[in-house]
């Protein structure tokens, strides 16, 4: 498909989608226009295969989002910090989810000894630092894909450390039980795996620790280190 055709297709697809949603539920857009109260702040990768609302089976209004290349969370990044501040202080989200993913180009670039070019090498500097700090473990993994998954996990772990050191997040955790989760999205299966970093360590779950987040059309259940999703009406 030519590029212009792709754009025209996207516009007509939007038109069809809006028509379908309105037909299915005439209150959907008027309700959406009246304001937002998302329960989840999602920090993820810009990768086109990781559209948070879609892969969570949720709907517009359910997830507040910040995405960048390789889901890097740096304490000095004012863009990420502003999103966190607004979501946590003003929208009062209940969960912060930091999501890495399999097959991340940023992870592969950080593992390579080649320069990417332009500003991109600067951007992935934190990932390069993770690679250097864990060189022995990473180099011992023979499979390229598995090595990229491992650095993606380490990147989420590092990002969670940065999030847990963020004063805005610390206050919300203490004052109203904000939860912070580190997860990994497997593009090859569509499943999200809880890595057990954040406010709930892996294995600390159990039935009593179930956390249910209800979106407009789906319910997300965090249970003993796993996230699962149920479609609801
Ligand atoms: Zn990525």
Output the keywords.
233 residues, alpha/beta, 2 domains, five-stranded mixed β-sheet, binds zinc ion
Topology:
Elements (H helix, E strand, L loop, with lengths): L2 H22 L3 H6 L6 E6 L6 H4 L7 E6 L9 H13 L4 E7 L3 H7 L8 H4 L1 H9 L1 H5 L4 H21 L2 H10 L2 E8 L4 E8 L12 E4 L3 E6 L2 E6 L2
Parallel strand pairs: 1-2, 1-3, 3-4
Antiparallel strand pairs: 4-5, 6-7, 7-8
Helix pairs in contact: 5-7
The site of zinc ion (ZN) has 7 residues, from α5.
Can you tell me about this structure?
There is one protein chain. The protein has about 230 residues and is an alpha/beta fold. It is about 45% helix and about 20% strand. It contains ten helices and eight strands. Mean pLDDT is about 90; it is low at about 205-210. It binds zinc ion. Zinc ion binds near residues 47, 70, 101, 104 and 105. InterPro entries: Carbonic_anhydrase (IPR001765), Carbonic_anhydrase_CS (IPR015892), Carbonic_anhydrase_sf (IPR036874). It catalyses: hydrogencarbonate + H(+) = CO2 + H2O. Its EC number is 4.2.1.1. Reversible hydration of carbon dioxide.
Short description:
43% of the residues lie in helices and 22% in strands. By secondary structure, it is of the alpha/beta class. The longest helix has 22 residues, at 3-24.
CATH topology of the largest domain: Beta-carbonic Anhydrase, Chain A
How many domain modules?
2
Taken from the alpha-carbon principal axes, the silhouette is: globular
H and E order? HHEHEHEHHHHHHEEEEE
What average pLDDT do the residues reach? Answer: 91
Instruction: Give the low-pLDDT segments.
Output: 203-209
Ligands bound here? zinc ion
Query: Could you estimate the helical fraction of the residues in percent?
Result: 40-55%
| Rg computed from alpha carbons, rounded to a whole number of angstroms | 19 Å
- The number of helical segments is 10
Number of E-type strands: 8
Q: In whole angstroms, how far apart are the ends?
A: 36 Å
* Main CATH class of the largest domain: Alpha Beta
> What fraction of residues sit in β-strands?
15-25%
The major β-sheet equals: 5 strands, mixed
Content-based structural category:
alpha/beta
Strand order of the largest sheet: 2-1-3-4-5
